Amino acid sequence: MAVFNELKSVVWSAADEILRDSVPRNEYDDHILPFLVLRRFECMIADKHEKILDYIESNTDKLEDMEEGNREFHIKTKFSVPFYNTSRLTLTNIAADSDSIFKAMETYLTSFSSKIRLIWERFKFIDSLKTEEDAGILHSMIDKFSEFDLSPGRVGAEGMGDIFEHLMYLSFTGSAKEAGEFYTPRDVIEMMVEILFASDDTGLQGEFPARSVYDPTAGTGGMLLTAKHHLERLNEDVEVSLYGQEKMVKSWALGTSDILIQSDPEDEFAADAIVYGNTITEDAYPDRTFDYILANPPYGSKWKNEQDAVKKEAAKPGSRFSHGLPDVGDGQMLFMSHIVHKLTPAHGETGGGRAAVVSDGSPLFTGGPESGPDSIRAWILDPENDYLDAIIALPTSMFFNTGIATYVWIFDKNKEAHRKGKIQLINATNIWSPIKKTMGQKRRDLSALDQKKIVETYAAFEDSDISHICTSDALGFRDVPVVRPLTLVTSVTEETVQAAMSHNDITEDYREVIEGLDGVDFADIFTVLKKELRAHKLRNTAGIRKHIALSVGIHDDHAPVALDEKGNTLTDSSSKMVERIPMTEDIDEHMKREVLPFVPNAEWDKDEAKTGYEIPFSRIFYQPEDTRTTEEIDQNIERLMNEMFQQFQEVKE
Question: What's the whole-model pTM score?
Answer without folding.
Answer: 0.85
